[in-house]
Amino acid sequence: MTEASLIAGRAGGLLGFAVLLTGALGALFGFVAGQAAGAPVLGALGGAVLGGGLAMVLVRGFADRRGLGRGAAVVLCAATGLAFGGLAGLIAGLLVGAVLGWCAYWIGAGTYRAGVPPYATAGQVLWHNAFLFLCGLIFFFLIAPILVVIPLSFNAEDFFTFTPEMLALDPAGYSLKHYEDFFGTSDWQQAMWNSLKIAPVATLLSVTLGTLAAIGLSQSHVPFRQAIMAVLISPMIVPLIISAAGMYFFYSRIGLQGTYAGVVLAHAALGIPFVIITVTATLVGFDRSLTRASANLGAGPVTTFFKVQMPLILPGVISGGLFAFITSFDEVVVVLFVGSAGQKTLPWQMFIGLREQISPTILAVATILVTLSILLLTTVELLRRRSERLRGMSPG
């Protein structure tokens, strides 16, 4: 058998596999769409034909023009969705077309082997892609609730489910009434201001104490460093309900139960481990000769810290502070134990809303908190990259 025939046979096998897999994926999408329309079997058959036909046309006719092929797949699926499902079908068709086009080229063009060495066996290729698929599935499992909550927060009705108007993308099914309720209700506003009064102060305490502890524990001459580190980061390991119960009994003995100071100290204790871990990680690449040089030039410990150490470890300090802020702002278990009605925070008010009145305003608040968390975590990632550049661990 000639080399040309081997290549042709391999390409034919890939084409058949691409048609089979893309057709199965199209059947899955068609079954979901058909389920919504009341004809799941017909939808699955139509999706299988559409997916398999797309794979054959794309791999054979658009092998060297993948961008054009993917665009054609998106347009075809979007037109099909618009014909059968209106505006909602159009949007679903855009997504389905993008996925089917990617799948067809991923198999048919042999892209599935791109992440493995050329000498990898079929089992190794299968394991590599199965691992990536599993990671993607876990990521989707984690992110799916957020993708559901955000659109539901714009529901025009007082429901926790998608209405027919929302599914049809009718503007009448969407409203900002729940956001207006959040910004216009005294209970929600009081809870928000309590969170904004508690979280920054708790973060400041966490950053101050956590940074000092991390610098001290980074010194090799400190005795029992590992044991002290284990104690300081234990709030991350011990279940919150146990920590909250312990704080309740301790605070009730010293008069801090139900006070602003007690809630701030409790949240600071929860945030300190995050600061210690991030600052300790930053100090791993810190050049100790800089502090010795500063001391030789006559600078005291305080001047050395603020002029030499702090600028270099600042990204880690800020990252830990952001994690501490998020922890304090989102915490509900501890504040239920150590707080009072005067320290009712935003998560506490959300817990009350779930338990007593089931108000969709909770969804609007959750969307705001998710947006805030995304912004803060994006800042953390940017600071991490800046820290790596400063320490020469990544190119500028």
Characteristic key phrases:
single chain, mainly alpha, 78% helix, globular
Average pLDDT, rounded to a whole number, is 82
How many helix segments? 15
- Tally the structural domains: 2
> Which structural class fits the helix and strand makeup?
mainly alpha
Strand content: under 5%
Q: Can you identify the CATH class of the largest domain?
A: Mainly Alpha
Please name the CATH topology of the largest domain: MetI-like fold
Question: What is the compact description of this entry?
Answer:
The chain is mostly helical and 396 residues long. The chain is 78% helix and 0% strand. It contains 15 helices and no strands.
Describe this structure in words.
- The chain folds into two domains: 3-114, no CATH class; 185-390, MetI-like (MetI-like fold).
- Helix content is 78%, strand content 0%.
- It has 15 helices and no strands.
Task: Write the SSE topology.
Layout: H1 3-37, H2 40-61, H3 66-108, H4 122-152, H5 164-167, H6 177-184, H7 186-217, H8 225-232, H9 240-254, H10 260-283, H11 289-296, H12 301-330, H13 333-338, H14 346-357, H15 361-390
Helix pairs in contact: 1-2, 1-3, 2-3, 4-15, 6-15, 7-10, 7-12, 7-14, 10-12, 11-12, 12-15
